[in-house]
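Case study: CDP-glycerol glycerophosphotransferase family protein.
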Amino acid sequence: MIKELFIRVYNFFVSRFFLLMRVLPVKNSVVILTSFGDNIDYIIRHPKMRLYDEVIIFSSRQYDFKTFDNVKVYTHSSLSVKELYEIGRAKNIIVDNHFPVIGGMSTLKPYVKVFQTWHAVGAVKAFGLMDESFKHRPDCAKTRFKKTYQNVDYYVAGSKRMADIFKQTFSIDDKKIIKAAMPRLDFYREQSNIQSTRDNVRSRLNLDDEVIVVTYAPTYRENQFNISDIPLDISKMSQQLPSNYRIALRLHPTVQLDTDIKGVIDLTDGFSLEEVLSVTDILITDYSSVGFEFANLMRPVIYYPYDLDEYTNTKGLIDDYESLVTTNIAYSTDEILEMIKNDDFSAEEIRQFKDLWNDYNNQNNTNTLLSMLQ
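Here is what the predicted structure looks like once written out:
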């Protein structure tokens, strides 16, 4: 209850601050709040962004954003007066996550628009109003959450399936949905982008053309801090797969990779997600949204939910797991090996999976989003 009281006081303070800011003239600016950074380069390099006097980014992590004369980057902090001041005077707000400050945005100038790009193509893990923890919150907190989600004017959804999930998890209607994928998914619309990125990464890794890369990219788990904590027998896979197969790992930065695992490619640091997926021939994941994005490449995905029951009970899932992913579900290293060795993948199923989660990714997504900015 103490945390809830603090949040309500914070929201009250922020809303009053924005109310006072109404007396000041609006600036010809766009404010971007980001946790993930992946969409930002696509947004800020768009020609429309040069029409604004300022494009102000508040980032919770250090990203090497492409710089322009009108772009300014600051460290994100919901308690920063600078951040509140810039939000209160901006024409447009773009966010890629749920930030506490959104709870006070109901008193922004009425013509100011707030856009949510989100940060995932699809969803397995429950979030928003469907999160397991939401069920145990007091009624006042549930009401606050619902009001907060209404403060966002538009949500970018890359598929009808994701739009339906947003409507349920954020308690919104169709009028708030922009039928376009996240800006960074523009990358997958040009085969030349994919091929040149793939060639570049393979060159950096000294991989021959014959090498097939199998990448394991699990979701973050609080109890895993070393690769040995992950129940996937990587050594066995390396030994039993043909010699032209290489295992790659895309782990959470907190997970330590053992240096004695020979021949394993570490893609955790120094590679963007687009680079990782471009070089990957077969992806292994679990509850991460990375599989839905990888589907744009029309390559096989193996889902490995070895702790499905535990994860469902503690974290919660959007829906029945089997209805969210492909039929290539494995529960052991041996099952994964069997799928790979037998090339047990259906091109038609891969296409259907791609279409289900990416059916709005058929346009210039960045342009569609930014055309709605004032």
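For the exam, be able to explain this: Residues 187-358 form a domain with the Rossmann fold fold (CATH 3.40.50.12580).
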